[in-house]
Design a protein that fits this description.
By secondary structure, the chain is of the alpha+beta class. β14 and β15 form a beta hairpin. Bound molecules: uridine-diphosphate-2(N-acetylglucosaminyl) butyric acid.
């Protein structure tokens, strides 16, 4: 199935290198459709399989040309609107809105709720999809409702927060759900203290994470709050290990960085090494947090050669 000429006339399609659209700076060329009309989303999503792109901040993509097209939301989905203001405010935001810009705006306007996510690189839609956040704050915490296209649906529907079942790094919606917009319930607070909180969180991240290097953020989910993956990898003595163009960060064990020219397979080899050692030496199975596109699960599974 291909998109109709009418849809392609209204929305932009281009062949783009995924290495330029991901913070890991890895990935081959892909057909990328940028959707700017809500009424076209249903048809765009009928093309399956299809990848959904947000900010590309938690993503590892195959170096080969992608078989499936990539769908992302254009500027018309990056709008925001105050539905009510006061001590309790309701803010509607399109899924393509940049999360950091939104947090900055809310803090400066004196509305609390999202500042705990300061420093999380994502679009609002990407953050919802994986229930992004930190150890203490999740994006679903201040969500009022969310608009999605469920897999195989042709129109978008709203779900109240009470109908959602978010878990650690997972929205709770089925795989293939497309996030369109959401509404946040925020509280009036002092702008200066919100700005200070956001600044402090960003500074703490900058002190512990390799933010200036190309990476996809944390590679693994934390096996438990008591044993963060970064500490485990640190204790295994693996920080600084290099394979090809990829390196386990010297600064934070749960980051793999692209030192320049890294291939997806270099990252996979480091993942296998870490998983193999964690399993053998500590009896711990590490789950990947990073999303993978067109990379088979097997290449991330340790073999005897990897440990
Ligand atoms: N630690 C080490 N060595 C390391 C890294 C960490 O000993 O190399 C220790 C730290 O000293 C600390 C503990 O491990 O005592 C936890 O580390 P950190 O505070 O950096 O938090 P984290 O659990 O590694 C989580 C999220 C991050 C988020 C931070 C800050 C996950 C997998 N990671 O990291 O999210 O930025 O909290 O709130 O939940 C991401 O999702 O991509 C991500 C980076």
């Amino acid at each position: 199935m291909t998109w109709s000429p009418a849809l392609l006339e209204r929305n932009n399609e281009a062949l783009l290198p995924m290495a330029q659209l991901t913070t890991m700076r890895i990935g081959g060329p892909a057909k990328v459709l940028t959707i700017d009309h809500l009424e076209d989303l249903g048809e765009a999503l009928r093309e399956q399989p299809c990848h959904f792109l947000g900010k590309g901040a938690n993503l590892l993509v195959s170096d080969e040309p992608l078989r499936a097209p990539v769908l992302r939301l254009g500027k018309s989905f990056a709008q925001y609107q105050w539905l009510s203001e006061g001590d309790e405010a309701l803010l509607r935001v399109g899924a393509a809105h940049d999360l950091a810009l939104l947090i900055g705006r809310c803090c400066r306007d004196g509305y609390a709720g999202l500042e705990g996510l300061a420093g999380v690189p994502a679009t609002v839609g990407g953050a919802l999809c994986m229930n992004a956040g930190t150890a203490k704050h999740w994006i679903f915490d201040c969500l009022s409702r969310v608009q999605v296209l469920l897999p195989a649906a042709t129109t978008a529907e709203w779900f109240d927060r009470e109908q959602c079942q978010p878990q650690y790094r997972h929205s709770g919606f089925p795989a293939g759900t497309f996030f369109v917009a959401c509404e946040f319930r925020l509280r009036r607070a002092t702008a200066a203290s919100l700005v200070a909180t956001a600044k402090q969180l960003k500074a703490a991240k900058a002190a512990s994470q390799p933010l200036s290097a190309a990476s996809a953020g944390c590679i693994f989910k934390n096996p438990s709050p008591q044993l963060p993956a970064g500490r485990l990898i640190d204790e295994l003595g693996l920080k600084g290990t290099v394979i090809g163009g990829a390196q386990i960060s010297e600064q934070h064990g749960n980051f793999i960085i692209n030192q320049g020219g890294a291939l997806a397979h270099d990252v996979a080899a480091l993942v296998r090494l870490i998983r193999g050692r964690a399993r053998r030496e500590r009896g711990i199975d590490l789950s990947l947090e990073v999303q993978r596109w067109e990379l088979p699960d097997e290449i991330f599974e340790p073999t005897a050669e990897d440990v």
